[in-house]
Amino acid sequence: MRIAERYEAVQTRIAQAATRAGRSPTEITLVGIAKHHPAEQVVEAVAAGLTHVGENFAQEARERLPRVQALLAERGLALPRWHFVGRLQRNKARLVAGLADCVESVDRESLAVALDRHAAAADRILEVCLQVDLSGEPQKGGVAVEQLPELLRAVAALPQLRPVGLMGVPAAHPDPEQARPAFARLRALRERLSSTPEGHTLQALSMGMSADFEVAIEEGASWIRVGTALFGARESTTKLPAEPSDTRSTQGNKE
To answer: What is the third-level CATH fold of 3-231?
Structure first.
């Protein structure tokens, strides 16, 4: 199936899920996860209508983005907004702060401080989502629910960062319905925090991937992170750029 056909199929599923929930499909933003997919496929997705692209790995993004930008320019296509969705080390904060429009995986104050410093050096305001631990699995990252208000206060005080929402990755399960309680919990957290002075900018709920995004939409997702359903299976021959000294696994936020 061509990328354009996959894009239309995903958009149809988004519209159907939104209708079931009494929502407008225009409330949901599709973030296409480009991990391990070539630049040419990303460009085809943008040509089909994709406006937001997500990256899991800093070094892979650094290598792919110039090629994507060049191909888009050749075709007269506008650049999408770039999201970084993977777990992030502080030593990659400078790279990501210069590439991404939004970092969805901020889960600790030390990372936020590093992003703020590098965004200031680049004279940029960086949107961020706070990643919440929904699964209890360390490899997926995320701040503990009881520590979320403290992290929000710290991030909101940083001048170059703008907290725009919450992100979460539930425990993997073959039945997407099993993710519904976690999605509902994240929605309730955002609703509670958005009424606080430091949380008034929290509008986005980034939750739901290829296997469960329809349930996520029914539970209030505004951003869904979709890779396989949009781009197809990843090529097994694609090699991941080395991420030296990474003791924090990036696999949990894959798509």
So the answer is: TIM Barrel (3.20.20)
